[in-house]
Amino acid sequence: MYLPKSKYEIKSSPGNEYVFKDGTPYSGFVVITYKGEVYEGDRLRNIGQRLFTVKEYEEAQKAESPLLYNTYPVPTERDYDNGVFIRFFCIDKRNGKIYEVDEDLQKKFKSYRYISRETVNWNIIGPVDDTITGNYIFRGTRSKNQKLINDLEAKYPGFSTFLSPEQFVR
Questions:
Q1: What counts of helices (H) and strands (E) characterise the chain?
Q2: How far apart are CA 78 and CA 42, in angstroms?
Q3: What is the DSSP secondary-structure string of 65-96?
Q4: Which residue has the higher pLDDT, 60 or 54?
């Protein structure tokens, strides 16, 4: 994950503020994003698991529903060999929040009416820019991914600020 320095801060947690998704307390350095998401780690490049405030965890336990959080998956070499990275999203209809999740977490929310699920084939290999050969335009990865973003934005406002068409492209 990349964020400019103005979009996150690093703090130390004594051990009574944050827990892992299983409720285990965490003490140490945390990265707090501008969206309020908290991760274990002392640098953005070395972020670990998503952390939750004790209050968030207790509320989720009361509601008996799984916690919805961003997992920020990254493409594997196999994805690059295939030229496509399958991305999974959950959208909370109650507040419009968009979460990028892994396939397993998306499946957990299959039966929740207030969660919409989207899966996209993200283009990660090929020329970034469009090329013109004769009278034909060959769409680059930027154009293809921008179309995916536009389609998602039409259904769920906010996707255009959540994704970048050149993300993960080699």
A1: 5, 9
A2: 29
A3: -PPP--------HHHHHHTEEEEEEEEETTT-
A4: 54
